What does this fold into?
Amino acid sequence: MTRIGTSDLDVYPLLLGGNTFGWTSDPATSFAVLDSYVSAGGNFVDTSDSYTMPDKTDGDSETILGQWFQKRERRDDIVLATKVGLRADTFGLAPDNVARAAEASLARLNTDYIDIYYAHYDDAKTPLVETVAAFDALVQSGKVRHVGISNYSADRIAEWLTVCDDNGFAKPIALQPNYSLVARQNFEAGVRPLAQKFDLAVFPYWVLASGFLTGKYRTEADLEGAERGPFAGRFFSAEGLAVVAELDTIAQEHRVAIATVALAWTRQQPTIVAPLASARVPEQLGALLASVDLELSAFELDRLNSISSYDKK
It folds into this structure.
């Protein structure tokens, strides 16, 4: 277990993403994924009030997770993170939206508290002081234990922290950015220095670049017809394939999956507490969980840093 910033939360160093629940994983399969993750020692689950199957009702992921909490009676064993801001009927981060969305999430999740509540995306139309005040009100009420920020620029994160200092509001403890071996620049150049300065725990998503860093997509033919092909295709280039090849070499040396190495590299970066990864079925969890015990050497980290540095140009 590892500690989240200055909080009292100890978490497993692999965050299980709930975006597949109700999308690519039906309820029974979602339960199986959760059961397997917890059996392996996991205690940290991330979702959002907007995660669902396309063209279905927002909140399916939260609903399935709430059903699992009720059925398994494991709520107090899990550090739960969810997000607000993208759901159709409570879009944006105006105070009334945040308050109503939190109540709805609590109901779907079958719980009376959320451990980390994220602002999912920046809402430039709402004065930041109003958004931060709304999150602080949830903390003061006990419905939310801690605040998190997802997908914000470094400047806006700094502004959020200033608003907290000026008004005595509860400060965020966590950041959730897009970060991987093929998407380094935005996080490393601007967001990570802030995380280091203010002791903010980082839980990056898209760590496997929509499956590209699992090694599944080596040719353009591999992308054709694949469910995540359009997303993984963004990284398909000579430089991206070189990163996959280096991951493959290191994976073979350790006799693990390519995804295991990609996750281990991310976990060993400064300010990262736990990378976020999702599993459609329990069988996919093995490679993800193995990353917790894989410690890459300084030489291996340097090899990966060097080959992936094209993203930083």
In short: Strands lie at 2-3, 10-11, 15-17, 44-46, 79-84, 114-119, 144-150, 172-176, 201-202, 276-277. The first strand starts at residue 2 and ends at 3. The chain has twelve helices and ten strands. The chain has a mean pLDDT of 94.
